[in-house]
Amino acid sequence: MKKILKPILTAFIALLCIPFLQAQSCADGSYEFSDMVAIFQSNGCTGCHGSQGGLNLSNYNNVVMGGNNGSGGCGPYSDPLSFLIGKIDGSLIQGDNCGNAMPRNGTPFGTPGMSAADIAAIQEWIDDGAPEFCAPSCATVDLDIRFDGFPAQTSWNITDAGGNVVASSTSYSGVAGNSLIIENNCLFDGCYTLNFFDSVNNGMCPFRATATSAGTFITPGTVIAPGSVVATLGTVVAPGLCGNYTLTDANGTVLASGGGSFGASETNSFCLSGGIAPIIFQGGNVHLKTIQDAQIRIIPNVINDQATLYYSLKTNQDIHIQIVDITGKIIEQYTRNFNDTNEINLNVNNLQSGFYFVQLMSGDIMLTEKFVKK
What is the pTM of this model? Predict the structure, then answer.
């Protein structure tokens, strides 16, 4: 019996040691928390850190908050998720005084406890903001077109940052003149260009020409003096009713607009962040993640009630933090001394569901990060 069980047991242990590569669940190729749970389980981490103990790797809030006690980071690791990576990627050393490496207490310091692919997947999930669920695969934008008298002359397309056409018109030859249509398109976050074209090079303002004539009946045999006016022809050219277009996001914010007599073509650039137009704050554009060697992170970035804002920046000035809604209205404000700890608890229980931004300012540094209130 022992001779039979030994090869079976050896094969079972070898199977457990095969590197596990979790496929991305999200349509855009990113990871959600369920992917991380699968990685933790396959590497035996949930045996010690399951439903019992101070850290539950199957519970999203428990993971992003650093366990039951919200222990945060440790030693060189500034937040719970970087500490988690340090535990498994081999960077943790005994001198950090931050406990043992993972998974299992037998993993030596300085040795990765998982395959490189699994560690890279966890790091990518963290870099994407540690989402609990997949973000919407794309967001709807509405293109309202009010045609001129000749819709068949109009066409359009939307190209991405690489110049690839991601949406385009069909023929409008059967559309009535001066009518209104709405085209719906679904776009991922990113920057785009809306291009409008007119086949006869007069934009969306056609010209209408009318002609009149008047003549004098001349009796046969009548002698006509040179220079006499015997007939007139008049033409009147007037512009027709012009067309226009407007592209809006899910909140009704105008992303691009135009029309009129633009000639052969007209272009408008726009961007989407979180499915909507990025907020433009006084003093500059939204900056994501890093600027001037500074960093900002909100964990989790899809929030029920509370989250933790982590930041790192070199400054000797006070730090001003504010929560802003998608219209630019300031909802809450905080002020921190530059010597204070680099984290702050955000209580958003009173906010309505939707997209918000946290803006951090100190001197000439401005950081902005987006979050979603469920």
Answer: 0.43
